[in-house]
Amino acid sequence: MENIFGKDLSQITDMVTGWGLPKFRGKQLAEWLYKKSAISFQDMQNLPKAMRQRLEAECTIDRAASVAKLESGDGKTTKLLLSFSDGVAVETVLMRQPYGNSICVSSQAGCNMGCAFCASTLHGMVRNLTVGEMLAQTYYINDLLKEQGEKVDTIVIMGSGEPLTNYDNVLRYIRLLHEDYSLGMSYRSITLSTSGIVPNIYRLADEGIPVNLSISLHAPENELRSELMPINRKYPMADVIKAGKAYGDITHRRVTYEYILIDGVNDNLKQAQELVQLLKGQLASVNLIPINPVAEKDWRRPSLARIEFFENYLLEHHITATVRREMGNDIQAACGQLRNKYISKS
Ligand code: SAH
Fold first, then answer.
1. Catalytic residue set
2. What is the pLDDT of residues 210-223, one digit of tens each?
3. Global confidence as pTM
4. From CA 210, how far away is CA 194, in angstroms rounded?
5. Centre of ligand 1 from the C-alpha of residue 216, in Å
6. How many angstroms does the Cα of residue 59 sit away from the middle of ligand 1?
7. In the list 93, 121, 191, 331, which could disulfide-bond 156, CB 3.0-4.6 Å?
């Protein structure tokens, strides 16, 4: 049996023309899968019976099943643990933002970047997710929203995993989201977040698609960044910033630098000054994220006053900066925590 959920139109068309069917049957099948979100071949009523039977005999539509679901007290955040055909499970989050429904999609089960503050990397990486699995996360939530007359408006590829080390699948996923026969999403409503895989930042810039790029920076000093993010030893900070600048220059999209604020670690005046020096003159903005405490470390959030001081310093020096709105803290929406709970239970 072959899973066809995740194949694009040309792959589907190749399959059906290989069966001796006309090309337009491929388009119809793709529309059933993606536009109409059909989960059974029997529902695909404009396909000939023989084609449906062959699909049934040889193909599957692998979607995702919910293993756990948590709703935040304010009803704005829904966190799901979704599992795939081999039992691997990842977190996907829906955030009802003022500007629309935003979802946070995982690109790998676990992660091997080893960032010191991140819960997703504690158990290493299990495997890359396929195109179909990233799409299945998206459709799971889109189908939920459809019942309420809504849809997914924006996507951040910011769940577990490093999307730029699963490059081909992630790019095929993004392109598929954009297709008319699928969700028809604009590239501008999609954001990819990376720990700074430099060569693939350049590659992404040359794809000719205006997706938003977020770069996890977290420190303005090379040495400190290496301590927090081991990948910095392979792709040092200066090269990451250079790649971010090139991304902005090539795509004309403003690059966002994510900066976790950790009390007494990366929140002092000198570090604010260094950050300004690094980003001066770039089409960039900084997203300050008060750290979500992780069990294994005694890192804490800076005081509110400290957070505001840091933000204001950037603003006064003409660096666009925002403090991330906190959502879903009461349901462990942050970064791999739900999955870890599930792994340690089972
Ligand atoms: N690997 C990619 C995407 C996944 S992480 C990346 O590194 O960008 C998504 C974001 O969550 C990153 O900015 C990451 O640094 C941040 N993050 C991880 N753990 C966190 C924590 N404990 N508190 C706040 N943000 C965290």
1. 91, 335
2. 999 999 999 999 99
3. 0.95
4. 16
5. 7
6. 36
7. 191
